[in-house]
Amino acid sequence: MSPRVIVEKAKGAGLQIIAITDHNMAECAPYVREAASNSGLVVLPGMELQTREEIHLIAIFDEYDTAFSLQTMVYGLLPPVPNDADFYGDQVVVDPDDEIVRFEERLLINSAQISIEEATGWIKSHGGIAIASHVDSPTFSIISQLGFIPADIPLDALEVRNLDRAGDLSPLIMRKKVPFVTFSDAHYPDDIGRRRTVLTLERPDCENIESALKLLGDGMSGGPA
């Protein structure tokens, strides 16, 4: 999953926009952007944040500085547990030439001490897109952890792994007209592009993505679809 390989696989899969959303980390995104600089592929920086409730939440931004600010805050809210590389594997930042920039010594799989409400509020107040991850998963999803999706969390979309069964979740979603989306959620190169969401955008930025998601939600009747 080096920047070079990510870009090659994304282009080969016909993707036009990808987001780099590593677990509790944003630091790899600028290197993927650099690798994609002459490819026509748009790379948005972000993070998959694990909240205090053990909920996975996707944050996507236009600017890396904003994503890195989130990383700085999250690092301060993670328990000071060192990574056991023999057990969990190395946590590395890699440049476009496949060279390791640094090893992250803090274990990143833990929950940051920030609530889902606080995390979503921070993302939206900093111009980002907030998407609840794999809400149809039996673990680490907002539904598995809370039992439902509260109406007062300003999520832009709900990510699912199986769009065909997404409608079954509607009774658990208190805020209506939040669209379902699906993504690769790629942890290995061959996973890139296995699932995708198609949006029509004037520009490939968070403002236009947010507007397209809102239109998608407004076009639904009776709840998410």
Structural write-up:
The chain has 225 residues and is of the alpha/beta class. The protein has one domain (3-218): TIM Barrel (Alpha-Beta Barrel). 28% of the residues lie in helices and 15% in strands. The strands form 2 sheets. It has a 6-stranded mixed β-sheet with strand order 1-2-3-6-7-8. A two-stranded antiparallel ribbon has the order 4-5. Helix 1 crosses helix 2. The longest helix has 14 residues, at 64-77. It is globular, with a radius of gyration of 17 Å. 36% of the residues are buried. The model has no long low-confidence stretch (mean pLDDT 95).
The CATH class designation is Alpha Beta
- Main sheet? 6 strands, mixed
Strand ordering within the main sheet: 1-2-3-6-7-8
The number of distinct structural domains comes to 1
H-E order:
HEHEEHHEEHEHEEH
Overall shape: globular
State the distance separating the first and last CA atoms: 32 Å
Features:
225 residues; alpha/beta; TIM Barrel; 8 strands; globular
